Structures are given as structure tokens and as C-alpha cells.
Amino acid sequence: MFKSKRLKETISNHVKSNMFLYSTVILFFSIGVAAGAFTVKSIDDVQKQSLINYLEGFFQILTNTNVDSMSVLSQSIKNNLQTSFIIWILGITVIGIPIALLIIGIRGFIIGFTVAFLINGLGLKGLFFTFSAIVPHNLIVIPCMIASCVISISFSMMIIKDRLAKRWTNNYWQKFFSYCLLMIILFIISIMGSLIEAYIIPVFIKLISNYLAP
């Protein structure tokens, strides 16, 4: 009980002390989502219909095919690891801040485009698919990515301030170790999202695949 309360206080203090960075990162993610959603409107009817036909064929395949959960898990963890590693690298460079924001913006764009296309092209079916296949694991992965970006940018800003002041923080290696540890913890948490994507989402999709198929 005490540890749980202390953990909540630590997370709360971290968010409060980095409120500006969290607001900035979330803003870039939101801009990406909005840009992705608006991009759907620029797709012509022929392209849109081709994508819809592809999705409907995919739903038909799902009704008769078993998903290889281990392959999905392996690919999901690999993707999350690559993203986490890139964000970690950006945190120890002076050029990492804009690129980290670009990464979170691109992830927002992908989600915004996917969700908007599904709902716009498939209506209620697309809405069902969104809540069964896209939302569940992203409820874990996206907050982890946002937190990783904030921590990465914060560490990068510390390096920049030290260089501008022509000094080196006495406890730099301690902060570097804490930075690495936090990034590892966030990656481990994101694996929970990968497990959901690999073992739970296919079950949801299977249950509604008959409804989604034309």
C-alpha cells in the first residue's frame, strides 16, 4: 500500500514538473492525429474503394484463418524496441528534440489516418474494428511513447544547458543511469501492449469478423 502510494506520488510529481513538455508532446501527437484524419479526405474515391475492398477481403480471411500470435508478438516487440531505442538515442544528442517530436507526430498521423479511414469507409463496422483492434494496445503503447519522448527531451535539454553553460553536471552519470532505467521500464510496460495485440486483439477480431466481413 505504501509503495503504491509512493509510486503514484513519484509519477504525479514527474508529470507536474514536466507539464510543459507533456503538453508539447501531446500537442504534436494531436496534430499528427488531426493531420492523418484530414488526409483521408484527400484520397480519391477509386483509392478509397480499393482500400475498402482490401480490408473486406482481410476480414473474410480472418474468419477462416488462425492468427500466429507468436509472430505478431515478436513483430510488435521488435517495432516497440526500435522506436524506444531511437528515442533513447535522441535523448543523448543535442539534435534529438525536434526528431523526437517528429516521431510522436508521425505515430499520431498513422493512428489518425487509420481510424478516420476505417470509420469513414466502413462506418459502424470501422468503429467496431477501431475499438477492438486499434484502441486496446495503444492505450498502453501511446502513453509509454509519450512518456519516453518527454524523458528523452528532458535529458537532451539538460545536456544542452550544460554545454551552453560550459559545465558538466557532477551527477551526470547518475542521471544517465536513471534515464536509461526509466526508458527500459517504459519499454517493458509497452510489452504489455504487445501481449494484448498478439493474444487478446485477435480474439476480439475473430468474434466480430463475421460482422465485419461483407
Automatic annotation (TrEMBL):
The chain crosses the membrane at residues 20-40, 85-104, 111-134, 140-160, 181-205. The gene is spoIIM. The keyword Membrane applies. This is Stage II sporulation protein M. Keywords: Membrane, Transmembrane, Transmembrane helix. It comes from the Bacteria. InterPro entries: SpoIIM, SpoIIM-like.
